[in-house]
C-alpha cells in the first residue's frame, strides 16, 4: 500500500542524511577515516562502507555557495571591527582615515548586495514560500534591507545637524551588522543538518551507540568481545532468540525450530524433481515487446496509456516479459501457461473502480522494483538467484491484490471481515499475501519447486508484502538502520530478506521518485481515493483519517510532509545499499520544490470551497 496517512508529526528536527563511500577492498582509508563506527559489505572486491549519522556528518562537504557565505561573513566581521576602531579614534578627522572609512563602507555595501543575491539564489533553489516559511529567514532579509538603507544614508547625509542622528543610526547599524554576522555564521553551521524537516531515530540505535562508546573505554579484549557480541545480536534483532545448550536436537523439536540438515544444491534438487522442460517463450505482442525493451528502465515511462490499450492484461504482459527476459520459466521449471493463469487472476482481482490501488499501481510498483534490480545494480549487490528474481517480481505484482480502496484504519473501525479475520494486524497486507498464495496453489504455479525452495519463496514473499503496511514504516525503517549500523551487514546473504522488504516498500512509496508528470497523476489518484474514504467516514460518524478530508487537505502540503517524513529519508538510507540510486534522488528534491510553490494555490482553493 502507498497510504500516506501514517505521517508522524512528532519529529520536528532536521537531520543530515547518511552517505555511502566506496573504497577499494582492504583500503586503510576505511579504518583511518571511520574507525570502528561503520558497517561494510563487499560486492566484486569493493567494500561499500556505511557510516552512522554522527560520523558521517563530518564527511559531508560544504556546497560552494555556503563556502562563499562563510568568506563573506568573515570579511564582514573584520570590516565591522575596523569601523569600531576608526570611529573611536580621536584622529577620525584625518583625511586618510576618512578615505579608509569610505572604502570600507563601499565594501560593506557590496557584501550586503551579495547577501541579497544569496537569498535570491536560495529562494530560486527551494522556492520563496519554503525559504520564507522560516521567520528567521524573513527577519534576516529585513536586516539586510535595513542595513543597505542605513549605509546609503550614512554615505550621503552630512553636516552638523545630522551628527546626533548619524551617531544613533551608526550604532543601530553596527548592532544589526553584528547580528547579521552571527545569524549568517549560525546558518552556515547548520548546512549539514539541512534536507528534511524530520529525524527518526530508534532506541536500538541509541543503545548500539552507547555500547560502542563503552567499548572504547575498555582495553580488556574479553569485555570488548562481549560488548561486540551484544551489539551484533541487537543489530541482528536476535536478542530474544533461544540459546540452546545440551541436547540441541531434542530442544529444537520442543521449540518447533527447524533442525539443520545436509544441504543439497538447489540446481540438483530441481533436476531430480522432474524431467519436464519449459521454454522461455511467452508470445508477447511484438509492438508491446519493443515498447518494453525501449522504456522498461525509464522512470518517466508512460504506462497510463498502455493501460488504456491493454486494460488489466498489461500486468500479465509485463510479468511475462520479465520472466522471459530473465529466463525464469526454464531455470525455475515454471509453466508459462500456469504463470499466465496466475498473473491473470492477480490482475483481474485488482479493482478497476479504485482510483489508486488498481492494476496500474501494481504495474508501477513492479516496474520500479525491476528498476532497482537492474539500473541500481541490486542484482549484483544482492547476489540474486533466479529464485530471488521470481520472489521480488511476483510479490511486487501481488502486493495490493484485491484492495478495496479503503485503508486498515477504516477496516478496523468498521469491523470489516478482513479486520476480524486477521485480528486488526495488517489485515489488507495479510489478505494480499494470502490471495497470492491461493492463486499460486490453484494454478499449480510452483508445483515443481522443492520444499526448501517453496518455503524460501513463501517466507520472503509474505514478509515483503507485509512490509508495505505504512503503519510498520517507522519500526521497519529503524530495523534497517540498525542493520546498516552493524559491522556485518551483508545484502547478498544474511540481510537479503530485509533488503527485499526495503525494495518493495520503497517502490510502493515511490511516487515522489518519479518525474512530475507521473507523480502528479498518482497524487490526485491517491488523494481522490482517500477523500472517498473520508466521505464514507463522515457518513458513518467515524473519525476522519488524516488526509481523507477533502475540505481540509492541502494537496501541496500533504506531499511535502510525505516527502520529508517518509520518502526522502528512506531513499537516502536505501542509497547506502544501492549507491547508484543517489544519482536519481535529485528528482525527489525537484518535485518537493514544485509542490512548495503551489501551497498558496491549494490553500486558496480550500478557502473558496
3D architecture notes:
Its main location: membrane. One of its GO terms (biological process) is signal transduction. Its EC number is 3.1.4.-. GO terms for molecular function: 3',5'-cyclic-nucleotide phosphodiesterase activity; metal ion binding; monoatomic ion channel activity. By secondary structure, this protein is mostly helical. It contains 29 helices and three strands. The chain has helices at about 30-35, 55, 65-85, 95-125, 130, 135-155, 165-190, 205-215, 220-235, 250-255, 265-275, 285-295, 305-310, 315-325, 330, 335-350, 360-375, 380, 385-400, 410-415, 415-420, 425-440, 450-465, 475-485, 495-510, 515-540, 555-575, 585-595, 600-605, and strands at about 20-25, 40-45, 45-50. The protein has a three-stranded antiparallel beta sheet with strand order 1-3-2, with helices on both faces. It starts with 19 loop residues before the first strand and ends with a helix. The model is unreliable at about 1-60, about 190-195 and about 260-275 (pLDDT under 50).
